[in-house]
Design brief:
about 30% helix; alpha+beta; about 25% strand; single chain; 4-stranded antiparallel β-sheet; D-Maltodextrin-Binding Protein, domain 2; 15 helices
């Protein structure tokens, strides 16, 4: 392997993103976004929840970020030099970058942030290959790896639970306790539980001079509006009414009926984004019936993916059970699993399940509840006694991320990982994070994948991972769904992405 000096020029990335015309509009205005739930935490290292990313990636930035095509590009770093043996990465940092508290960002802040994340971050496995992190100058950080990791820059730029750079004094705090102080284009104003989070334009922010346009989570983050408020509105009808009456300017998620009704109305923009997420069914493999592979296989065979997705996401779904999205070089196009009720009953009969009532946890997003209800009906058809327990996202995720909370099934979106690529999709199941019980085969495949430089060999490993997930029913990928979003027509230059980016937009 020969890795030469890697100073990423940004010419390719500048070709993407929507152009922000200079002086085309004045600053001002307040945008209110109707969001489905409150974030479980505003500590960016502590959670991988989509609702947290929506907010945190306006406040915080990372050394490398993903461009519009999900490729890693410099953000707080200006570039990186990689040693010939692939084990040492020397990052040059942008100078003159300020935190929201007025402090200049230095290498000490970067080191402290990375050290905090690798110890306890929500996706710490992504950077487990790091051996040491050191400040080798006021604006230079050197990372040494234990082993070659072909995906290191991609992992470092993951927005899933972003490896955000924060002041060293905040990085010294325990996980979940860091204050919302970043380097991003918006600063934190207030958080009122059960109501909203408000951010304000950070006038001390200097857009990255290497870019001329916004580009994914990187690019030139030029802010025109005064503030953005994320209002927590779990009820779909309330979100729809709020955007139609002008109380909010952007509804992050509506249903197909509302999208059809508003499409063509000059007062609104209806935006469709497919795929946005995979709908997955998790099994708690740490306790109860789902410790038995025959039981998990029975459940998987009981499911009718077309019916589930058709009910929950009409007009905005694709039956695709690969763990990365179509268009990725690693997309396998694996055969869609078919419902097999006879096979399901036979597998259930071989399992240790004795008819006890099982708990299916669901957060109170209407499509997710609809999907869970159909799954419940399909499981019931083969003799499984299932009770749905519906709560808000913070409550549900708080239960599902622990093994001993009495849950057996959990369905939710798996969106950012398939976007990022195979390493991210695999990482969620490493050390049993997603399924609550370690699987040495998956752990070994993940380690081999990250150390493999040959793409064809990586593809074979990822196919092995997908087969393992399906054969052992570690989790079931039902299919992809999209989001219908609605914005007022007064919100200009908006472009859909993984979060509702509020840089580069203005109000007419």
């Amino acid at each position: 392997m020969k890795l030469k000096f890697l100073q990423l020029a940004l010419a390719a990335s500048l070709a993407l993103g929507a152009v922000v015309p200079a002086m085309a509009q004045k600053k001002g205005g307040d945008v209110v976004i109707a969001m489905t739930a409150a974030p479980p935490s505003l500590d960016p290292h502590a959670t991988s929840a989509q609702v947290a990313r929506n907010v945190n990636l306006h406040i915080f930035e990372t050394l490398y970020a993903r461009d519009e095509g999900a490729r890693p590009v410099p953000d707080l770093a200006t570039g990186v030099t990689v040693s010939p043996d692939g084990l040492t990465y020397v990052f040059a940092l942008r100078q003159g970058v300020k935190f929201h508290n007025g402090k200049d960002m230095t290498s000490a802040d970067v080191v402290a942030s990375l050290e905090r994340y690798r110890k306890a971050g929500a996706s710490a496995s992504l950077i487990a290959a790091i051996d040491t992190v050191a400040a080798t100058g006021p604006n230079q950080v050197t990372i040494k790896l234990k082993t070659v990791q072909s995906t290191f820059l991609g992992n470092l730029s993951s927005p899933r639970a972003p490896i955000a750079i924060m002041p060293a004094e905040e990085a010294a705090k325990e996980m979940g306790k860091a204050a919302s102080i970043g380097t991003g284009p918006f600063s934190f104003v207030e958080y009122k539980p059960d109501s909203h989070i408000k951010l304000a334009r950070f006038d001390g922010y200097k857009p990255n001079p290497a870019y001329k346009e916004r580009d994914g989570f990187a690019g030139a983050k030029v802010v025109h509006i005064d503030s953005v408020t994320f209002r927590f509105m779990p009820e779909a009808g309330a979100r729809d009414a709020a955007v139609e009456t002008g109380q909010v300017q952007f509804n992050e998620q509506t249903d197909s009926t509302t999208a059809k009704r508003l499409r063509g109305n000059a007062n609104f923009q209806v935006i469709s984004s497919l795929p946005f997420s995979a709908k997955i069914l998790k099994y708690n493999m740490a306790q109860g019936a789902a410790t038995d592979v025959n039981f998990r296989r029975a459940v998987q065979m009981s499911l009718n993916a077309e019916e589930i997705m058709g009910v929950a996401y009409p007009d905005n779904n694709r039956i695709d059970q690969s763990w990365v999205y179509a268009g990725s070089a690693y997309h396998t196009g694996r055969p869609v699993f078919k419902q097999d009720l006879a096979g399901a009953k036979a597998s259930l009969a071989k399992s240790s399940y004795k008819g006890e009532k099982l708990t299916f946890i669901v957060h109170n997003d209407r499509p997710t509840v609809d999907a869970a209800t159909v799954m419940q009906q399909q499981m019931t058809a083969i003799g499984i006694n299932v009770e749905l327990k519906v709560a808000d996202w913070p409550t549900t995720s708080g239960i599902g991320l622990k093994s001993d909370q009495g849950w057996n099934f959990w369905t939710h979106g798996f969106g950012i990982e398939p976007y990022e690529g195979p390493a991210s999709a695999m990482s969620h199941w490493v050390k049993g994070q997603g399924q609550r019980k370690e699987d040495p085969t998956i752990d070994a495949l993940f380690a081999k994948f990250n150390g493999e430089m040959n793409v064809d060999a990586q593809k074979k490993m990822f196919a092995e991972f997908e087969n393992r997930m399906a054969d052992e029913a570690i989790a079931t990928n039902i299919g992809n769904y999209g989001l219908f979003q609605v914005a007022t027509s007064k919100l200009k230059n908006f472009k859909a992405y993984r979060i509702p980016r509020m840089w580069g937009v203005w109000l007419e």
